[in-house]
Design goal:
The chain is α/β, with parallel strands linked by helices. 48% of the residues lie in helices and 18% in strands. The protein has two domains: 108 residues, Rossmann fold, CATH 3.40.50.2300; 145 residues, Response regulator (Rossmann fold, 3-Layer(aba) Sandwich), CATH 3.40.50.2300. It contains twelve helices and twelve strands.
Length: 338
């Protein structure tokens, strides 16, 4: 027997045994938290080119989950992992998430800011650490914070489409309308700007059916606040003829308030997003129409912008994806709905 070959064989089997042991943590422990966490990270680094950190506004809204899912799938094809966390409307929490990304030395950071201005210092920390920052859906409005590229829906044009839908819904009778807004995020600000511009043009054009904006109320972009805002609106303006809500959750909350008050047939409701629940409400006649977004495209285009930046290619400072107006007729032909 060759002694040197026997020794090499034994060493080989020992190494294989060690690798096997490193891959098997104690029962009930995840590789990221068990005693073999370091070994797990070693294996991960061998399989991926790096990690992209993504902090979204909230994961309770399917829109942002779809952005996260499409980003994860697109990045995986290019050899990158995506670490997804949620600020849940808390900018302080999101700032801490950015700090954690910096500590983890992620390859890039993507944010849908909880507050378009207050997120600025966290982005500046990432800038100082040399980590490129991208924003998706919601832009940063803080001076001094450097963002490589902003990828989003064309919210301003979408707001214009929403105004066209309200004008169409009210017809020649016109009437009082209200806006349920969310003024701390840039995307919603743009929607309202576009909406108001078209309503102003409509009223100035001499057409019949003047439309008067009688209230702008905060909806928080969520159902319960949309419900409360609509309740308050109906107490102050029981004859309101239309409501524009800046997203589907706040629109659905408003619809519940209208139904409770017996005003559902009196008040036309236009939302924004085109989430499955919103589209179903359009099919059922509960919402008149939505400018719909394409969160899957936002996620894919964000990853493509990151990869171009990594490759040293020029990346546009802003990439806007058009909306499409979705009415009841569209919903009735939609195979994804009941």
């Amino acid at each position: 027997m060759n002694t040197s070959l026997s020794t090499a064989t034994r060493l080989c089997w020992s190494a294989l045994g060690l690798v096997f042991a490193m891959g098997c943590g104690q029962q009930g422990e995840s590789p990221s938290t068990g005693p073999d966490a370091d070994a797990s990270r070693v294996r991960l680094s061998l399989k991926t080119k790096g990690t992209i950190g993504l902090s979204v506004l909230t994961l309770t809204n399917p829109f942002f989950k779809e952005i996260a899912d499409s980003m994860t799938a697109e990045a995986r094809q290019a050899g990158y992992d995506v670490l997804v966390v949620s600020g849940e409307f808390d900018v302080a929490r999101q700032q801490n998430q950015v700090k954690d990304f910096i500590v983890k030395k992620v390859a890039a950071i993507v944010l849908t800011p909880c507050d378009s201005k207050s997120i600025g210092p966290a982005i500046q920390e990432a800038n100082a650490a040399g980590i490129p920052v991208f924003t998706a859906d919601i832009a940063c409005l803080a001076p001094g914070a450097k963002v490589v590229s902003h990828i989003a829906t064309d919210n301003y044009s979408g707001g214009k489409e929403a105004a066209g839908a309200i004008i169409e819904a009210l017809g020649e009778s016109g009437g009082k309308i209200a806006i349920l807004d969310h003024k701390i995020v840039e995307s919603c600000i743009l929607r309202v700007q576009g909406f108001k511009e078209v309503i102003g043009q409509h009223n100035a054009g001499g057409a019949r059916g003047k439309i008067q904006i009688v209230a702008e109320l905060p909806s928080g972009g969520v159902k319960d606040q949309g419900y409360k805002a609509a309740e308050d609106l109906l107490q102050a303006h029981p004859d309101v003829a239309g409501i524009f809500a800046i997203n589907d959750p706040s629109a659905l909350g408003a619809r519940a308030a209208l139904e409770k008050a017996g005003k559902a047939d009196q008040t036309k409701l236009v939302g924004f997003d085109g989430q499955p629940e919103g589209k179903q409400a359009i099919k059922e006649g509960k919402i008149y129409a939505d400018p719909i977004q394409f969160p899957d495209k936002i996620g894919v285009e964000t990853v493509r912008a990151i990869l171009k930046h990594f490759a040293g290619e020029p990346v546009p400072a802003q990439l806007l994806i058009p909306t499409g107006l979705y009415r009841k007729a569209d919903a009735e032909k939609d195979p994804a709905l009941k």
